[in-house]
Specification:
174 residues, alpha/beta, GMP Synthetase, Chain A, domain 3, three-stranded mixed beta sheet, 6 strands, 24% strand, globular
């Protein structure tokens, strides 16, 4: 491991990793040369995407030699084996196992798209703008879809939460 990789690993461990773990993922340095650091997300890589800019800023502040941070997803099986369309398969699972439960909160979840191993979700109704939406996605929906869709890389929430007009739990209730 290079000196740069060791410095970045130390920075991850001390200031960044706890918040990434709280979101359902882990990060590790897989390469570091010429100021460019590549980190690999495992667990819930979709949890890292929304905060990747902050992660890069914290790494660059802690380790001045870093000029860029790249994200590589952990290796998985071939994306979505089988014949069923991945978006349709994910929506079928959501309709059967998730939407009935979150309907009590006036919520609904739809598959926006599915490709390259990623399922992109759009939360609607009481889930749009809800302060617990991230918990619902990372601790409820993503583990369920992972168990049912072998080869899935991750789940990304593409909801415009700022546009939510009636969140079940408002951000103030956090």
């Amino acid at each position: 491991m290079s000196d740069l990789a060791r410095e970045v690993t130390a920075a991850l461990r001390h200031s960044i990793l706890p918040s990434v773990i709280a979101r359902g993922a882990t990060l590790r340095v897989v390469a570091a040369e010429d100021g460019v650091v590549t980190v690999e997300a495992d667990g819930s890589p979709g949890a890292v995407l929304p905060i990747l800019g902050r992660i890069e800023a914290q790494i660059r502040a802690a380790v001045p030699g870093v000029t860029a941070v790249r994200l590589a997803a952990a290796e998985t099986a071939a994306p979505f084996p089988g014949t069923e369309d991945p978006a349709r398969a994910a929506q079928r699972i959501l309709d059967a196992e998730v939407n009935p439960a979150i309907a009590a909160h006036r919520g609904h979840v739809m598959v926006d798209s599915a490709d390259g191993g990623w399922i992109r979700l759009r939360l609607e109704g009481g889930c749009q703008g809800c302060s617990l939406a991230e918990v619902t996605v990372r601790q409820g929906i993503e583990p369920l879809l992972r168990a049912r869709l072998p080869g899935m890389t991750g789940v990304a929430d593409v909801t415009d939460h700022e546009a939510g007009t009636e969140p079940f739990f408002s951000p103030e209730k956090r």
